[in-house]
Structures are given as C-alpha cells and as structure tokens.
Request: fold
Amino acid sequence: MYSLRRRYLANFSVVDPQKIIANKLAQPKSCTYIRNSKVAYSNKMKQDIFQAIADPTRRAILALIAIQALTPNAMAEKFDMSRQAVSKHIKVLHECDLIKPEHSGREIYYHFNAKKMQEFDHWLAQFRQSWETRFNQLDQLLTTIKDQK
Reply:
C-alpha cells in the first residue's frame, strides 16, 4: 500500500520520519523509509492511528469497548466473525494504544484507552477550529446570496 507520505519520501534514499514529520501521534515509531523498497519496521513498531480507525470494524469495536470491557470471544459474537479475525483487529488497536488488555483469570478483557483518544482529539482540534471558521464563512456567504434573491 502506497501512502502519500511514502510517495513524498521516494525522493530520499533513507529518511528518518521523526525529522520529516514532527507529529508523533500520526507517525509510527521505529520506522525507516527506504527508497524504492518496502518500509522496514522494527519489532516494537506502533501502528498508525489513522490506519487503525480507518477500518469500520475497528471503529465499531472501539465503540463497543468504550461502553463496556469485552473479551475477544464476546466481540466475535457481536460481529458474527471468527475469533481469529477479531484478534487481528484487536492487535492493530492494541499496537496503537487505543485499547488496553486486562487479565482476569483465564480471560483477557480489553478496555478503551480514553487518554489516547484525547491525544488524538487534541491533535485534531487545531484543524477543527479552521474548519469551523471556514464553514461559518460559507454559511454567511450562502445567507447573503439567499437574501439577495
């Protein structure tokens, strides 16, 4: 999968993403971009939070876990999919620190990590203010045009 970031960095031979992108929330850790090659990851690499929430199933899992901690088996029943499929989604969400596991006997309950979502929301806030300003300007323009007719 080619992202815009990798296409942009294709002009460089080896680039440290921390020097290119200052935002640590949107950037995977321990990642090296290599020209005309696949991305090389270390064992401790974190998933990109945007790719994690891009999948509708993972968003639904987050919504369920935000209400109540669930086991992978309970999630699989709610989504009518295999436990293995749910485990893959859980793995991605866990690597992004969006969910936290809690061992209770033989079961693992996954909890929603609100702190990580607050970090994400804080990062989005800078854009939200710009969007709201532009939408308000558009509303004023449309109202003006409507009043002129």
Observations:
- Strands lie at 14-15, 31-34, 40-41, 99-104, 107-112.
- Confidence is low (pLDDT under 50) at residues 1-44.
- The two ends are 49 Å apart (CA to CA).
